[in-house]
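Before the break, one more example. Copy the sequence into your notebook; we will annotate it together after we see the structure.
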Amino acid sequence: MKNKKGQSLGGLYGGILVIASIGILLALVLYILSSIGTSLPAGSAAQNATGTLVTQFVNFLPWLGIILLVLAAGVVLFFVIRSFAGGGKGMGV
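Here is what the structure looks like once it is written out:
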């Protein structure tokens, strides 16, 4: 049996890649919505709807930062707790 002292962070790379991809896609969608909203006639309800959607998402961004911070702290705590949980193994009683 091998004694592993370090923890593998290989799975973490995939999660970060997914979060970054979602962020890029959201930025692209918001850019498209704002471009469509400015090209629509000013009296139309569609321009107000796209403007409201972009504004509401911008107002949600601080909450998104807090959610991502909590998720990152959870990942760090997971690896810290996992590293300490394996410390007691191998002691015969």
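Residues 11-88 form one domain. The CA atoms of residues 19 and 68 lie 9 Å apart. Try to locate both features in your own notes.
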